[in-house]
Structures are given as structure tokens and as C-alpha cells.
Design goal:
The chain is α/β, with parallel strands linked by helices and 244 residues long. 38% of the residues lie in helices and 15% in strands. It binds S-adenosylmethionine. S-adenosylmethionine is lined by residues 49-51, 77, 79-81, 84-85, 107-108, 111-113, 134, 136, 161-162, 180-183, 185-186.
């Protein structure tokens, strides 16, 4: 391995540890449990991504795979919270000297929407909109990017409820789409609005597939409606992905 590759590995693994809060054993659950953080099963108090070490490592592999294979398009996360996974994606682009791909962040930047049981009965019991801990403002997320020296014009923010923003989002082509909206509504709207913009060979990553049943149902409903069976691959027993 060259010195450059070693430096890249060290930086990305240190960045991941910082983003998920593991360096300081930062968790809402006590005592801190390394296995839980590995799979993103607890939330950091101050850390800025809750996806855990394995999903972060997979995100690196997926990013580097689309770069290596030349899958065209930008990368995007719908449901960013404090921005950690997107900061990581921006770092990977920077390390590879990529200047013609953008990182898109879509979020209300005020938490999850109240359930809309008439349109999305699978969300009827969701109380996630009451969780203050799931709110992070756009200003805070911009500040988080700036702290890591990664806020620039390749980082694009789309603020608002997915139902209002995603159908007309000014994103033309995606090499990677990461869904992390925790609800049926958030998942199905992302897929309906953006799936057709994912390039052949692009990654579709669903963070909550095994964590939130409504999210899994949304994926299945979408695929059934479109008449395809995605080749779903496991990441860490929580998140999954397939290639378009
Ligand atoms: C679990 S958090 C995302 C975690 C993040 N990806 C990370 O790296 O830690 C879910 C996020 O989705 C956003 N969200 C969920 N549903 C939404 C919707 N329908 N419209 C806009 N934002 C939504 C919430 O505001 C919240 O920031």
C-alpha cells in the first residue's frame, strides 16, 4: 500500500470514528457498548451520525466503487440529521480529487413529519415526529460541514418536507442514493421521486430496512408497483443496499 493510500485509510477511519462519536464513547445509552455502535444501534449524544461504524465503512466502499467504475451522477442522502454521513461522502469525493460530483442533502431540518395515516397507514403508530433529538437545523448542519473543512459549493441543501421538495428536486442523475427517513412516507416518496434518476449500477442504500418495518414495507410496495425484485444485500443486519 502506498503512503497516500495509508494516509487516506487513516483519515477516513478517523473521520468515521469522530462522526459516529465513538472516540469519546459518546452514547445516549449507558454504559457505552462498542458492539452497539458498530451496528448503529444506539444514538450519539454529540456525535453527528447515528449510522454506526459498519454502515459508514460500507458507505466508503459504495462511494469508491462508483468512482472506480465511473457510475455517473451525484450522491444524495434523504434524511441527514446532523449531516455526518454526508460529510463522510464529501470527504471521499475530496480525497479522490472529484470536482464534478455534488453531495445533496434533503431534510426538513426540523425533524420528522407527523404521520399522515390517510395516505400512509403504515405510519399510523409513528411517534418519531415528537423526538426532539431527531431535529437538527440547516445552520447546525452547515456548521458541522465547516468544522470538518468540507463546506463548499459541491454541497447542496434541499430544505423542506420530502413530499414538497423531492418530486421537483433539481437533481438530474445520481450514482448513490441513501435513504434514511425512518418512515413509510419518507421512504416511498424518496423512491417515487428519485429512483428513476439513479444511474444503472448506482447504489440505493436503505438505512432503516431492518430497523423500521414501515420502511421495509415501503421498499417492497415500491418494487412491487414497478414490477422488479431488487437484489438486496445486507450491510450490518440493519441497513441494506442494492444496485440499480
Ligand atoms: C434517522 S435521521 C437521519 C440520520 C442520518 N442519516 C445520520 O447520518 O445520522 C432521520 C432524518 O430524516 C429527516 N426526515 C424524515 N422524514 C422526513 C420527511 N418526510 N421530510 C423531510 N425530512 C425528513 C429528519 O428530519 C431526520 O433528520
Amino acid at each position: 500500500m502506498s503512503d497516500l493510500e495509508t494516509a487516506r485509510d487513516l483519515y477516513l477511519s478517523l473521520l468515521s470514528e469522530c462522526l459516529i462519536g465513538s472516540l469519546i464513547e459518546d452514547s445516549v445509552l449507558r454504559p457505552y457498548d462498542k458492539q452497539r455502535r458498530d451496528r448503529g444501534l444506539d444514538w450519539p449524544l454529540w456525535g453527528i451520525s447515528m449510522i454506526g461504524r459498519q454502515r459508514m465503512a460500507h458507505l466508503r466502499k459504495a462511494m469508491e466503487c462508483v468512482l472506480r467504475e465511473g457510475v455517473p451522477g451525484d450522491v444524495m442522502e434523504t434524511g441527514v440529521w446532523r449531516g455526518g454521513a454526508c460529510i463522510f461522502m464529501r470527504a471521499v469525493l475530496k480525497l479522490h480529487g472529484i470536482t464534478d460530483r455534488r453531495v445533496w442533502l434533503a431534510d426538513s431540518f426540523e425533524g420528522l413529519p407527523p404521520p399522515d395515516p390517510n395516505s400512509f397507514p403504515a405510519d399510523s403508530d409513528s411517534t418519531l415526529h415528537t423526538f426532539d433529538r431527531l431535529r437538527a437545523s440547516l445552520e447546525d448542519v452547515r456548521e458541522n460541514f465547516a468544522r470538518y473543512g468540507l463546506l463548499d459549493d459541491q454541497v447542496m441543501f434541499i430544505k423542506g418536507w420530502f413530499r414538497d421538495t423531492l418530486p421537483t428536486a433539481p437533481v438530474s442523475q445520481l450514482a448513490l442514493l441513501r435513504l434514511d427517513g425512518d418512515m413509510y412516507e419518507s421512504t416511498i416518496i424518496t423512491l417515487e421521486s428519485l429512483y428513476d434518476r439513479v444511474s444503472p449500477g448506482g447504489f440505493v442504500i436503505v438505512d432503516d430496512y431492518h430497523g423500521v418495518e414501515a420502511c421495509r414495507t415501503a421498499v417492497h410496495d415500491f418494487c412491487a408497483r414497478r414490477g422488479f425484485r431488487p437484489g438486496i444485500e445486507e450491510i450490518d443486519g440493519m441497513g441494506v443496499y442494492w444496485r440499480a
